[in-house]
Amino acid sequence: MLKGRHLIDPMDFTLEEIEEILELGKDISKDPEKFTHLCDGKILATLFYEPSTRTRFSFEAAMLRLGGRVIGFSEPNSSSTAKGESIADTIRTISCYADIAAMRHPKEGSSKIASLYSTIPVINAGDGGHQHPTQTLTDLLTIKSIKGNLNNNIIGVCGDLKFGRTVHSLIKAMSRYDNNKFILISPKELKVPDYITKEVLMKKNIEFLEVEKLEEVIEKLDILYMTRVQRERFFNEEEYIRLKDSYILDKGKMSLAKEDIMVLHPLPRVNEIDYEVDEDKRACYFKQAKYGMYVRMALISKLLGVK
Ligand code: NCD
Predict the structure, then answer these.
(1) What percent of the chain has pLDDT over 70?
(2) For a substitution probing ligand 1, which of 124, 267, 284, 285 has the most ligand atoms within 8 Å of its CB?
């Protein structure tokens, strides 16, 4: 039963519950018009303490396309946060006005805290460099819709694997399906945190490899998940500048890849995928952005328990 639940971490839902959301997301993607009144009279609050394009707009568009309405802020200084209000008090107040909330915050664990004080479902729309479970639902729906299932993939994850919350959530989620293997491609300074390699991959005996060069492994990959170097999480700008262009996917590198590789990127892109790759039919990142709206429509409906 998903009604009334929070989504803070990809592991909060069972595989069956995720399947339920993906199935509905797929139905919605095929005929969105059919769902125009599912959330009539309901209100979504979007609490964004950090910049966002896709996540916030896709949440808002999702609720509007379901017939619901949206309140919120995209600039915390326009809320009582600027006066020193705590997350606990903000969410207790929002719970009085809205039926469901999506929250993005620069601090790891902040949506978890909000969920402890909330009487409405709280969705983690990104907590610092930690997790981003709705991006992962987006990724799962994209992979499933294009490939047909979520098993038997060699998944290359490339870029900032240290601070990239989308990567942490994706690895957690894809580790639960059969026979997926990972190739983790990053500079040594931006390797995946230990809690992912030790607590997720090693614990489940999942094959993985850590490498520094994309061109050496690209031919093996079924999925390539590119990510941006997360400037805002660096302590030192010089270090960011040194690492920011570690990877640039271009036509040359794409010529080494499988005919049916899927290239994904949560976006925004900075330099890591050359615009020339956009025309390649294997580039799926804008389709992915669209699936993000459909899967959020499904998630909102399920957490609100509307049918
Ligand atoms: C990602 C995020 O916010 O973590 N963006 C998104 O939600 N699609 C990725 C990023 O900012 O690099």
Answers:
(1) 100
(2) 267
